[in-house]
Amino acid sequence: MINVFENNSISMFHPSSWGAGSIDKYQIIKKIGKGVYGEVYKGICKQTGKKVALKKINLKLYSEGFPHTAIREITIVKILNHENVVKLFEIVKSSDNVISKNYSIYIVFEYLKHDLSGLMLSPYIQAFALPHIKSLLLQLCTGLAYIHENGIIHRDIKTSNLFLSKIGLLKIGDFGLARQYYGSSTYTKNMVTISYRAPELLLGDSNYTNAIDMWSVGCIFAELLLKVTLFPEETDIGQLELIWELCGTPDVNKWKSVEKLELYQKYRPKKSKPRKIKKTFAKLPKDALNLLDKFLKLNPSKRITAKKALKHQFFKNPPFPSLPKSIVNYPSSHEMGSLEIRKSILENIKMPKKRFRTNQSDGLFELK
Protein backbone atom coordinates (compact mmCIF):
# COMPACT_ATOMS: atom_id res chain seq x y z
CA MET A 1 0.00 0.00 0.00
CA ILE A 2 1.25 3.48 -0.89
CA ASN A 3 1.48 6.02 1.92
CA VAL A 4 1.29 9.29 0.03
CA PHE A 5 1.96 11.36 3.13
CA GLU A 6 5.16 9.72 4.33
CA ASN A 7 8.06 12.16 4.36
CA ASN A 8 9.96 10.31 1.66
CA SER A 9 6.92 10.50 -0.63
CA ILE A 10 5.46 13.95 -0.18
CA SER A 11 8.84 15.72 -0.19
CA MET A 12 9.22 14.75 -3.84
CA PHE A 13 6.15 16.81 -4.67
CA HIS A 14 6.25 19.58 -2.05
CA PRO A 15 4.79 22.90 -3.29
CA SER A 16 8.20 24.59 -2.97
CA SER A 17 9.45 22.42 -5.83
CA TRP A 18 6.38 22.82 -8.00
CA GLY A 19 5.80 25.31 -10.79
CA ALA A 20 9.38 25.47 -12.08
CA GLY A 21 8.07 25.62 -15.64
CA SER A 22 5.97 28.39 -17.17
CA ILE A 23 2.42 28.37 -18.51
CA ASP A 24 3.83 30.22 -21.51
CA LYS A 25 4.77 26.86 -23.03
CA TYR A 26 1.06 26.14 -23.42
CA GLN A 27 -1.64 27.86 -25.44
CA ILE A 28 -4.96 27.99 -23.58
CA ILE A 29 -7.85 27.21 -25.93
CA LYS A 30 -11.03 27.36 -23.83
CA LYS A 31 -12.58 26.62 -20.46
CA ILE A 32 -13.99 23.09 -20.31
CA GLY A 33 -14.95 22.61 -16.68
CA LYS A 34 -14.45 23.32 -13.00
CA GLY A 35 -12.86 21.15 -10.33
CA VAL A 36 -12.95 21.21 -6.53
CA TYR A 37 -10.54 24.14 -6.27
CA GLY A 38 -9.99 25.51 -9.77
CA GLU A 39 -11.17 25.99 -13.33
CA VAL A 40 -10.10 23.57 -16.05
CA TYR A 41 -8.99 24.60 -19.54
CA LYS A 42 -8.14 22.81 -22.75
CA GLY A 43 -4.66 23.70 -23.93
CA ILE A 44 -1.96 22.78 -26.43
CA CYS A 45 1.77 22.43 -25.86
CA LYS A 46 3.34 24.94 -28.26
CA GLN A 47 6.42 22.78 -28.77
CA THR A 48 4.83 19.37 -29.37
CA GLY A 49 1.27 20.23 -30.40
CA LYS A 50 0.00 17.81 -27.75
CA LYS A 51 -3.39 18.58 -26.20
CA VAL A 52 -3.51 18.91 -22.41
CA ALA A 53 -5.99 19.77 -19.66
CA LEU A 54 -4.89 22.66 -17.44
CA LYS A 55 -6.36 22.99 -13.94
CA LYS A 56 -5.80 26.55 -12.72
CA ILE A 57 -5.22 27.45 -9.08
CA ASN A 58 -5.32 31.21 -8.48
CA LEU A 59 -3.22 31.56 -5.33
CA LYS A 60 -4.40 35.09 -4.53
CA LEU A 61 -7.77 33.55 -3.67
CA TYR A 62 -6.17 31.45 -0.91
CA SER A 63 -4.94 33.60 1.98
CA GLU A 64 -3.47 30.60 3.79
CA GLY A 65 -1.28 29.59 0.87
CA PHE A 66 -1.46 26.60 -1.46
CA PRO A 67 -4.87 24.85 -1.02
CA HIS A 68 -4.50 21.55 0.81
CA THR A 69 -6.96 19.90 -1.59
CA ALA A 70 -4.63 20.69 -4.48
CA ILE A 71 -1.61 19.38 -2.57
CA ARG A 72 -3.51 16.19 -1.82
CA GLU A 73 -4.64 15.68 -5.42
CA ILE A 74 -1.19 16.35 -6.90
CA THR A 75 0.52 14.04 -4.43
CA ILE A 76 -1.97 11.21 -4.93
CA VAL A 77 -2.17 11.37 -8.73
CA LYS A 78 1.60 11.80 -9.07
CA ILE A 79 2.14 8.51 -7.24
CA LEU A 80 -0.76 6.50 -8.70
CA ASN A 81 0.12 4.87 -12.01
CA HIS A 82 -2.70 3.04 -13.77
CA GLU A 83 -4.27 3.15 -17.21
CA ASN A 84 -7.67 3.92 -15.65
CA VAL A 85 -6.40 6.92 -13.67
CA VAL A 86 -5.85 10.33 -15.29
CA LYS A 87 -2.14 11.03 -15.79
CA LEU A 88 -0.48 14.16 -14.41
CA PHE A 89 2.32 15.59 -16.57
CA GLU A 90 3.71 18.57 -14.64
CA ILE A 91 2.95 21.68 -12.61
CA VAL A 92 3.69 25.12 -14.09
CA LYS A 93 3.19 28.71 -12.93
CA SER A 94 1.92 31.89 -14.54
CA SER A 95 4.28 34.74 -15.34
CA ASP A 96 2.62 37.09 -12.83
CA ASN A 97 4.16 38.50 -9.65
CA VAL A 98 5.42 35.49 -7.70
CA ILE A 99 6.80 37.54 -4.80
CA SER A 100 3.39 39.02 -3.95
CA LYS A 101 1.69 35.65 -4.58
CA ASN A 102 -0.39 37.31 -7.27
CA TYR A 103 0.07 34.39 -9.59
CA SER A 104 -1.47 31.08 -10.55
CA ILE A 105 -0.35 27.47 -10.60
CA TYR A 106 -1.52 25.18 -13.40
CA ILE A 107 -1.67 21.41 -12.96
CA VAL A 108 -1.12 19.85 -16.38
CA PHE A 109 -3.05 16.62 -17.01
CA GLU A 110 -3.47 14.51 -20.09
CA TYR A 111 -6.36 15.76 -22.22
CA LEU A 112 -9.25 13.36 -22.64
CA LYS A 113 -11.86 14.04 -25.28
CA HIS A 114 -14.97 13.27 -23.24
CA ASP A 115 -16.35 13.16 -19.74
CA LEU A 116 -19.11 10.65 -19.08
CA SER A 117 -21.52 13.36 -17.92
CA GLY A 118 -21.17 15.11 -21.28
CA LEU A 119 -21.79 11.86 -23.13
CA MET A 120 -24.95 11.35 -21.10
CA LEU A 121 -26.18 14.71 -22.42
CA SER A 122 -24.98 14.18 -25.98
CA PRO A 123 -27.74 14.48 -28.59
CA TYR A 124 -25.82 11.94 -30.69
CA ILE A 125 -26.31 9.09 -28.21
CA GLN A 126 -29.82 7.84 -27.51
CA ALA A 127 -28.77 4.80 -25.48
CA PHE A 128 -25.64 2.87 -24.58
CA ALA A 129 -25.14 -0.61 -26.00
CA LEU A 130 -24.76 -3.31 -23.35
CA PRO A 131 -21.17 -4.23 -24.42
CA HIS A 132 -20.25 -0.55 -23.94
CA ILE A 133 -21.90 -0.40 -20.53
CA LYS A 134 -19.97 -3.50 -19.49
CA SER A 135 -16.72 -1.98 -20.72
CA LEU A 136 -17.25 1.33 -18.92
CA LEU A 137 -18.24 -0.37 -15.66
CA LEU A 138 -15.40 -2.90 -15.92
CA GLN A 139 -12.85 -0.13 -16.43
CA LEU A 140 -14.30 1.93 -13.57
CA CYS A 141 -14.13 -1.03 -11.17
CA THR A 142 -10.62 -1.88 -12.36
CA GLY A 143 -9.42 1.66 -11.64
CA LEU A 144 -11.16 1.78 -8.26
CA ALA A 145 -9.81 -1.62 -7.25
CA TYR A 146 -6.30 -0.24 -7.86
CA ILE A 147 -7.04 3.00 -6.01
CA HIS A 148 -8.59 1.20 -3.03
CA GLU A 149 -5.77 -1.36 -2.85
CA ASN A 150 -3.40 1.58 -2.52
CA GLY A 151 -5.33 2.91 0.45
CA ILE A 152 -7.12 5.80 -1.26
CA ILE A 153 -10.81 6.76 -1.10
CA HIS A 154 -11.82 8.96 -4.03
CA ARG A 155 -14.88 10.52 -2.31
CA ASP A 156 -16.32 12.10 -5.45
CA ILE A 157 -17.01 9.36 -7.97
CA LYS A 158 -19.52 10.77 -10.46
CA THR A 159 -19.99 10.88 -14.22
CA SER A 160 -18.32 14.28 -14.64
CA ASN A 161 -15.15 12.93 -12.99
CA LEU A 162 -14.90 9.97 -15.37
CA PHE A 163 -13.11 10.71 -18.63
CA LEU A 164 -12.80 8.82 -21.90
CA SER A 165 -9.98 8.86 -24.42
CA LYS A 166 -10.51 8.89 -28.17
CA ILE A 167 -10.43 5.08 -28.20
CA GLY A 168 -12.89 4.67 -25.31
CA LEU A 169 -10.42 4.13 -22.46
CA LEU A 170 -12.03 5.27 -19.19
CA LYS A 171 -9.95 7.20 -16.65
CA ILE A 172 -10.86 8.34 -13.15
CA GLY A 173 -10.00 11.98 -12.50
CA ASP A 174 -10.43 14.92 -10.09
CA PHE A 175 -8.87 13.66 -6.87
CA GLY A 176 -9.46 16.98 -5.09
CA LEU A 177 -11.57 15.30 -2.38
CA ALA A 178 -9.60 12.05 -2.28
CA ARG A 179 -7.62 11.03 0.77
CA GLN A 180 -5.71 8.16 2.27
CA TYR A 181 -7.82 5.59 4.09
CA TYR A 182 -6.53 4.51 7.51
CA GLY A 183 -9.32 2.18 8.55
CA SER A 184 -11.42 3.13 11.57
CA SER A 185 -10.64 6.85 11.52
CA THR A 186 -12.83 9.94 11.53
CA TYR A 187 -13.17 11.70 8.17
CA THR A 188 -14.81 14.85 6.86
CA LYS A 189 -18.56 14.59 6.42
CA ASN A 190 -20.67 15.62 3.43
CA MET A 191 -18.29 14.18 0.88
CA VAL A 192 -19.44 13.10 -2.62
CA THR A 193 -21.82 15.00 -4.91
CA ILE A 194 -25.29 14.48 -3.48
CA SER A 195 -26.78 12.41 -6.36
CA TYR A 196 -24.02 9.83 -5.79
CA ARG A 197 -23.81 10.11 -1.98
CA ALA A 198 -24.16 6.89 0.00
CA PRO A 199 -26.88 6.58 2.68
CA GLU A 200 -24.36 6.36 5.52
CA LEU A 201 -22.96 9.77 4.50
CA LEU A 202 -26.45 11.25 4.29
CA LEU A 203 -27.03 9.98 7.84
CA GLY A 204 -23.93 11.74 9.15
CA ASP A 205 -21.37 8.93 9.26
CA SER A 206 -17.80 10.19 9.81
CA ASN A 207 -16.23 6.72 10.13
CA TYR A 208 -17.06 5.64 6.60
CA THR A 209 -15.01 3.36 4.36
CA ASN A 210 -14.23 3.11 0.65
CA ALA A 211 -17.67 1.51 0.33
CA ILE A 212 -18.94 5.05 -0.30
CA ASP A 213 -17.18 4.92 -3.69
CA MET A 214 -18.98 1.68 -4.54
CA TRP A 215 -22.41 3.18 -3.84
CA SER A 216 -21.48 5.89 -6.35
CA VAL A 217 -20.54 3.18 -8.84
CA GLY A 218 -23.99 1.64 -8.40
CA CYS A 219 -25.63 4.99 -9.15
CA ILE A 220 -23.49 5.36 -12.28
CA PHE A 221 -24.29 1.80 -13.39
CA ALA A 222 -28.01 2.57 -13.16
CA GLU A 223 -27.43 5.86 -14.97
CA LEU A 224 -25.70 4.07 -17.84
CA LEU A 225 -28.67 1.75 -18.18
CA LEU A 226 -31.29 4.50 -17.86
CA LYS A 227 -29.36 7.48 -19.28
CA VAL A 228 -30.83 9.60 -16.47
CA THR A 229 -29.77 10.24 -12.87
CA LEU A 230 -31.00 7.55 -10.46
CA PHE A 231 -31.43 9.79 -7.40
CA PRO A 232 -31.76 13.39 -8.70
CA GLU A 233 -32.49 15.21 -5.44
CA GLU A 234 -30.80 18.32 -4.03
CA THR A 235 -31.36 17.88 -0.29
CA ASP A 236 -30.20 15.17 2.11
CA ILE A 237 -33.71 14.29 3.24
CA GLY A 238 -35.02 14.29 -0.33
CA GLN A 239 -32.18 12.03 -1.40
CA LEU A 240 -32.80 9.65 1.48
CA GLU A 241 -36.50 9.44 0.66
CA LEU A 242 -35.69 8.42 -2.91
CA ILE A 243 -33.23 5.83 -1.61
CA TRP A 244 -35.77 4.44 0.87
CA GLU A 245 -38.33 4.23 -1.93
CA LEU A 246 -36.09 2.08 -4.13
CA CYS A 247 -33.74 0.33 -1.72
CA GLY A 248 -36.11 -0.07 1.22
CA THR A 249 -35.76 1.37 4.70
CA PRO A 250 -32.86 0.36 6.95
CA ASP A 251 -33.32 -2.86 8.91
CA VAL A 252 -31.56 -2.39 12.24
CA ASN A 253 -31.18 -6.16 12.51
CA LYS A 254 -29.19 -6.27 9.24
CA TRP A 255 -27.43 -2.90 9.67
CA LYS A 256 -27.00 -2.67 13.43
CA SER A 257 -24.72 0.38 13.45
CA VAL A 258 -27.24 2.54 11.58
CA GLU A 259 -28.95 3.56 14.85
CA LYS A 260 -25.66 5.08 16.04
CA LEU A 261 -25.32 7.42 13.04
CA GLU A 262 -25.67 11.07 13.99
CA LEU A 263 -28.68 11.89 11.80
CA TYR A 264 -30.52 8.59 11.91
CA GLN A 265 -33.05 9.64 14.53
CA LYS A 266 -33.68 12.90 12.67
CA TYR A 267 -34.06 11.35 9.22
CA ARG A 268 -35.30 7.88 10.09
CA PRO A 269 -38.21 6.86 7.83
CA LYS A 270 -41.67 7.23 9.32
CA LYS A 271 -42.92 4.08 7.60
CA SER A 272 -41.13 0.88 6.73
CA LYS A 273 -40.72 0.32 2.98
CA PRO A 274 -39.64 -2.87 1.19
CA ARG A 275 -36.65 -3.11 -1.12
CA LYS A 276 -37.86 -2.70 -4.72
CA ILE A 277 -34.72 -2.84 -6.85
CA LYS A 278 -35.45 -6.24 -8.37
CA LYS A 279 -39.10 -5.39 -8.94
CA THR A 280 -38.47 -1.92 -10.38
CA PHE A 281 -35.76 -3.12 -12.76
CA ALA A 282 -37.27 -6.52 -13.52
CA LYS A 283 -36.62 -6.11 -17.26
CA LEU A 284 -32.87 -6.00 -16.75
CA PRO A 285 -30.81 -9.10 -17.49
CA LYS A 286 -30.55 -11.14 -14.30
CA ASP A 287 -26.78 -10.77 -14.01
CA ALA A 288 -26.98 -6.96 -14.37
CA LEU A 289 -29.79 -6.80 -11.82
CA ASN A 290 -27.85 -8.94 -9.38
CA LEU A 291 -24.76 -6.72 -9.64
CA LEU A 292 -26.77 -3.50 -9.32
CA ASP A 293 -28.41 -4.89 -6.19
CA LYS A 294 -24.96 -5.59 -4.68
CA PHE A 295 -23.71 -2.06 -5.41
CA LEU A 296 -26.77 -0.48 -3.79
CA LYS A 297 -26.75 -2.32 -0.45
CA LEU A 298 -27.74 0.07 2.33
CA ASN A 299 -25.33 -1.51 4.81
CA PRO A 300 -21.83 -0.47 3.61
CA SER A 301 -20.26 -3.60 5.08
CA LYS A 302 -22.47 -5.70 2.77
CA ARG A 303 -21.79 -3.61 -0.34
CA ILE A 304 -19.71 -5.32 -3.03
CA THR A 305 -16.08 -4.20 -3.34
CA ALA A 306 -14.47 -3.16 -6.62
CA LYS A 307 -12.24 -6.23 -6.55
CA LYS A 308 -15.16 -8.62 -6.08
CA ALA A 309 -17.25 -6.79 -8.69
CA LEU A 310 -14.59 -7.56 -11.32
CA LYS A 311 -15.27 -11.27 -10.83
CA HIS A 312 -19.04 -10.94 -11.20
CA GLN A 313 -20.84 -13.05 -13.79
CA PHE A 314 -22.14 -9.88 -15.47
CA PHE A 315 -18.78 -9.41 -17.18
CA LYS A 316 -18.44 -13.10 -18.13
CA ASN A 317 -21.79 -13.56 -19.87
CA PRO A 318 -22.42 -12.45 -23.46
CA PRO A 319 -22.50 -9.87 -24.89
CA PHE A 320 -18.93 -9.31 -23.73
CA PRO A 321 -17.38 -5.93 -22.86
CA SER A 322 -15.96 -3.99 -25.79
CA LEU A 323 -14.19 -0.63 -25.84
CA PRO A 324 -16.87 1.97 -26.63
CA LYS A 325 -15.01 3.43 -29.62
CA SER A 326 -18.21 4.24 -31.46
CA ILE A 327 -19.58 6.54 -28.74
CA VAL A 328 -16.40 8.61 -28.52
CA ASN A 329 -16.17 9.40 -32.22
CA TYR A 330 -18.50 12.37 -31.81
CA PRO A 331 -17.50 15.99 -31.04
CA SER A 332 -15.94 16.42 -27.62
CA SER A 333 -18.52 16.28 -24.85
CA HIS A 334 -16.62 19.07 -23.05
CA GLU A 335 -17.66 21.43 -25.84
CA MET A 336 -21.42 20.89 -26.05
CA GLY A 337 -21.91 24.59 -25.41
CA SER A 338 -21.58 26.75 -22.34
CA LEU A 339 -21.44 25.24 -18.86
CA GLU A 340 -24.66 27.13 -18.10
CA ILE A 341 -26.47 25.32 -20.93
CA ARG A 342 -25.21 21.95 -19.70
CA LYS A 343 -26.38 22.81 -16.18
CA SER A 344 -29.83 23.78 -17.40
CA ILE A 345 -30.11 20.49 -19.29
CA LEU A 346 -29.20 18.52 -16.17
CA GLU A 347 -31.72 20.41 -14.06
CA ASN A 348 -34.52 19.42 -16.42
CA ILE A 349 -33.70 15.71 -16.40
CA LYS A 350 -35.91 13.78 -14.01
CA MET A 351 -35.96 10.15 -13.06
CA PRO A 352 -38.67 8.45 -15.17
CA LYS A 353 -41.34 6.71 -13.15
CA LYS A 354 -42.00 4.09 -15.81
CA ARG A 355 -39.90 0.99 -16.09
CA PHE A 356 -37.64 0.42 -19.04
CA ARG A 357 -37.41 -2.45 -21.45
CA THR A 358 -34.54 -4.16 -23.27
CA ASN A 359 -34.13 -4.84 -26.94
CA GLN A 360 -32.18 -8.06 -26.81
CA SER A 361 -31.33 -7.93 -30.51
CA ASP A 362 -29.11 -4.87 -30.21
CA GLY A 363 -28.38 -4.83 -26.49
CA LEU A 364 -29.93 -1.41 -25.92
CA PHE A 365 -31.99 -0.28 -22.96
CA GLU A 366 -34.83 2.07 -23.79
CA LEU A 367 -37.40 3.89 -21.71
CA LYS A 368 -41.02 2.87 -22.26
UniProtKB/TrEMBL annotation:
Residues 26-315 form the Protein kinase domain. This is Cyclin-dependent kinase 12. Belongs to the protein kinase superfamily. CMGC Ser/Thr protein kinase family. CDC2/CDKX subfamily. The keyword RNA-binding does not apply. Keywords: ATP-binding, Kinase, Nucleotide-binding, Serine/threonine-protein kinase, Transferase. The keyword Acyltransferase does not apply. InterPro entries: CDK (IPR050108), Kinase-like_dom_sf (IPR011009), Prot_kinase_dom (IPR000719), Protein_kinase_ATP_BS (IPR017441), Ser/Thr_kinase_AS (IPR008271). One of its GO terms (molecular function) is kinase activity. ATP binds at residue 55. Gene3D superfamilies: Phosphorylase Kinase, domain 1 (3.30.200.20), Transferase(Phosphotransferase) domain 1 (1.10.510.10). Pfam families: Pkinase.
